[in-house]
Write a structure and sequence with these properties.
With about 270 residues, the protein is of the alpha+beta class. The protein contains two helices and six strands. It has two domains: about 110 residues; about 90 residues, Thrombin, subunit H (Beta Barrel).
């Protein structure tokens, strides 16, 4: 029994040794495989690390480049912003100046329109004034011609009727002068018209040309520029100033500023001192 037990134990010991050797071999192979695997992994990690370092270097370089570009772009952006601000200020200034120019242009246009209107109005007034002047000139020429014709006709008429007028108007120098407060003389008894007499009467009235003919002339001491006050029933009517003087009569212009009523034939003419 003891030899079998020893054999068994030996067999067991051999089995244990074989198992241990197998385990050692297997473990050694496994360790070697793991070592190879670890070495491969280490190589892979080393290569990956190198790749990462290269990539990091590239990224660092790219980052530096990007930072430089960002700095440059930031500088350019500041410059552009400054230029934009300047252009904005310039545009605002130009807008203000343009608005002022527009206001000035509108004002100048308004002044120009007013000047044109004033010029047109002045031209119209000048045309009207020329027309009025021409009309007045024509009227004055007509009046002068009418006055000259009337004076000529009156002169001829009075010259033809000189004796008759003297008989009607002139009284002897010895006749007593009529008192100033007396009534208007009747046609049959006219006031004396001698050099010492300052009273006569109106023979003719020309209302269109504004003059009268008195029965006093150079023989009565009447001169050009002599003034007479005309009255009717002792009431003042008008004042006349002698313009033309003849022997027994004179033509006198009516002074409108002294006119107080309508002059009629037969009105009394008294010399103004």
């Amino acid at each position: 029994m003891k030899p079998r037990l020893g054999t068994i134990l030996l067999v067991i010991a051999l089995l244990v040794a074989v198992v241990a050797a197998a385990n050692f071999y297997v473990g050694r192979n496994s360790e070697r495989a793991q070592r190879v695997l670890v070495e491969e992994q280490l190589d892979a990690v080393t290569q990956a690390k190198a790749a990462l370092e290269r990539e990091k270097a590239d990224l660092t370089k790219a980052k530096t480049t990007l930072e430089e570009q960002v700095a440059q772009l930031t500088k350019q952006a500041k410059e552009v912003a400054e230029q934009f601000a300047q252009e904005k200020r310039a545009r605002e200034t130009l807008t203000t100046e343009l608005a002022q120019v527009r206001r000035d242009a509108t004002q100048v246009k308004g002044q120009l329109d007013n000047e044109r209107k004033e010029k047109a109005a002045t031209a119209d007034e000048l045309t009207k004034a020329k027309q009025s002047y021409q009309a007045l000139s024509n009227e004055l020429t007509t009046l002068r011609q009418a006055k000259e014709a009337l004076e000529k006709r009156v002169k001829e008429m009075l010259a033809a009727r000189a004796k008759e007028a003297e008989q009607i108007v002139v009284t002897p120098a010895s006749a007593a002068p009529k008192p100033a407060a007396a009534a208007s003389p009747a046609p049959a008894s006219p006031a004396p018209a001698s050099a010492k007499t300052s009273e006569g009467k109106v023979l003719v009235v020309n209302r269109d040309l504004g003059f009268v003919v008195l029965n006093l002339g150079s023989k009565d001491g009447v001169r050009r520029g002599t003034r007479f006050a005309l009255s009717r029933n002792n009431k003042p009517v008008a004042t006349v100033e002698v313009d033309k003087v003849y022997d027994n009569m004179c033509a006198a212009n009516l002074l409108e500023e002294e006119k107080k009523g309508e002059v009629k034939e037969g009105d009394i003419a008294r010399l103004l001192s």
